[in-house]
Design brief:
Layout (H helix, E strand, L loop, with lengths): L1 E6 L4 H11 L5 E4 L1 H7 L2 H9 L4 E8 L3 H11 L3 E5 L4 H14 L2 E5 L6 H9 L5 E5 L2 H4 L6 H11 L3 E4 L7 H6 L4 E4 L1 H4 L4 H10 L3
Parallel strand pairs: 1-2, 1-8, 2-3, 3-4, 4-5, 5-6, 6-7, 7-8
Bound molecules: ribulose-5-phosphate.
InterPro entries: 3-hexulose-6-phosphate_synth, Aldolase_TIM, HPS/KGPDC, OMPdeCOase_dom, RibuloseP-bd_barrel
Enzyme class: lyase
GO molecular function: 3-dehydro-L-gulonate-6-phosphate decarboxylase activity; hexulose-6-phosphate synthase activity; orotidine-5'-phosphate decarboxylase activity
């Protein structure tokens, strides 16, 4: 299983600093949606230039104009771009077209989707690289939030998937057992007193 650090900070300087600390322990560096909105596509270029050996994930959360939005993120240096699972299939297909032309990949984010396994199977058939089983920050903050529900849905989908939704050192073993290809960790790394140590411990917890 790969580890993806989600950088939900708000400046390129902070993102570069964090990425510099944790890069040795992660496979994928994600530029979070708030970061891209705050800094623009230039943050993607800055991170890719600093870490050309890492997969750079632009969390665009695109809902429309899939081909155009994916293409501008790829042109800026992204290797993977997220499109929302709630988008029309034509939006996802357009993004996959842009990815294919550039030799890159699309990840569909199932945030807000009720029947995640069913939608995962539909979008997998459109040629996406993997599907993200995702409970967003607001959903995680609600009482009764349970990551295991997300993990069970991922396993049931029988398609290549990642998991995002409060993944931490106490849950990463269960994420791996679920069969996920990628564990996404944001706050567990960027809010840690020592982000490099936190990322190192997540990596060391993998079997
Ligand atoms: O995409 C996101 C929010 O929409 C986050 O990056 C994702 O949820 C991972 O962060 P955390 O591990 O803190 O939940």
């Amino acid at each position: 299983m790969k580890i993806q650090v989600a950088i939900d900070l708000l400046s390129t300087a902070e993102a570069l600093q964090l990425a510099g600390k944790v890069a040795p322990y992660v496979d994928i560096i994600e530029l979070g949606t708030p970061l891209i909105k705050a800094e623009g596509l230039s943050v993607i270029t800055a991170i890719k230039q600093a870490h050309p050996d890492k997969t750079v994930f632009a969390d665009m959360k695109t809902m429309d104009a899939g081909e155009l939005e994916a293409d501008i993120a790829f042109a800026a240096g992204a290797d993977l771009v997220s499109i929302l699972g709630a988008a029309d299939n034509s939006t996802i297909a357009g993004a996959v077209k842009a990815a294919t032309e550039r030799g890159k990949g699309i990840v569909v984010d199932l945030i807000g989707i009720a029947d995640k396994p069913a939608r995962a199977r539909e979008v997998a058939a459109l040629g996406v690289q993997f599907v993200e089983f995702h409970a967003g920050l607001d959903e995680q903050a609600q009482p009764g939030y349970d990551l295991d529900v997300l993990l069970s849905a991922g396993t049931a989908s029988q398609v290549p998937f990642s998991v995002a939704g409060g993944v931490s050192i106490s849950t990463i073993a269960n994420v791996q057992k679920s069969g996920a290809q990628v564990a996404v960790a944001g706050g567990a790394i960027y809010s840690a007193a020592d982000p490099a140590q936190a990322a190192k411990e997540l990596q060391a917890a993998l079997v």
